[in-house]
Amino acid sequence: WGKTGHRVTGHIAQNHLTGKAKRALKDLLDGHSLAYVSTFADEIKADRSYSKFFAWHFVNYPLDLRYEDSDKSEHGDLITAIEECTRIVKNKNNKREDRVFYLKMLVHLIGDLHQPMHASRAEDKGGNSIQVQWFGEGSNLHRVWDKNLIESYGMTYTELATELDHLTGKERKKVQEGTIYDWVQESHEICANIYDSAKTGDKLGYQYGYKYNKVLFQQLQRGGLRLAKVLNELFE
Ligand code: ADE
Ligand code: ZN
Ligand code: ZN
Predict the structure, then answer these.
(1) Of the candidates 84, 107, 117, 142, which lies 20 to 30 Å from 136 by C-alpha distance?
(2) Ligand 1: which atom is nearest the Cα of residue 126?
(3) How many domains is the chain partitioned into structurally?
(4) Where is the signal peptide (predicted)?
(5) Which of 157, 150, 184 is nearest to 12 (CA)?
């Protein structure tokens, strides 16, 4: 996601933390919110010394396979990255500075896991090389999902988060079920559908937004509630 998608995810998660997780996060993040730190992993991309983390933002494998059955990238991927972040943050013997760094990465990566074009295929770089128009302006299928769709609402991240955070306790529990392998499979299946929905040169606008607004909002809502679950378990 772009900034707004990550902040919506962080803002929703913030409302569903246990007391223990809240205290641990307050300490490690120096009082900053999850929404605030959620974009850190993109900010460090400008610094070449962090280039090894580029491959951590996505995972590509054939659309008809599950992650577990696919060949893995030698550079790591979104799934191995989430596992590594979890491991480092969990271990209190690690340096505080490292635990903070990987915690901020983790907050971001759970967001990306729910952007369908981040659980994608390699041929077109998760839709980055599929050029389309968005309301008459140049874009690509990846960017449509990172930000064009979200920004078309003209709402702030707090407004969007409030709009999406309306589930009952029982409904939230249901969304929080499963593992990162289940969650990446959901994103991957949505991604396959998205590839069928548009081809190079298509002019996308109102119709496309209307077709996908439920899917978009569902993925943001899932990302937020599942981030809360991951953090609650991490600091149990
Ligand atoms: N580069 C290659 N694949 C990508 C993907 N799925 N998302 C973002 N950038 C990528
Ligand atoms: Zn992206
Ligand atoms: Zn990212």
Answers:
(1) 117
(2) 6
(3) 1
(4) none
(5) 157
Query: pTM of whole model > 0.95?
Result: yes
* Cα of 234 from ligand 1 centre, angstroms: 27
Sorting pLDDT into bands at 50, 70 and 90, what band is 212?
A: very high
Q: Which one, of 138, 125, 132, lies nearest residue 60 by Cα?
A: 125
Rounded distance from Cα 126 to ligand 1 centre (Å): 5
Give me the helices (H) in the chain, please. 3-14, 19-28, 34-37, 40-43, 78-90, 96-113, 141-143, 149-151, 157-164, 169-175, 180-197, 206-234
Q: What is the CATH number of the domain that holds 216?
A: 1.10.575.10
Q: What angle do CA 122, 125, 127 make, to 5 degrees?
A: 115
Residue-range definition of the domain harbouring residue 36: 3-234
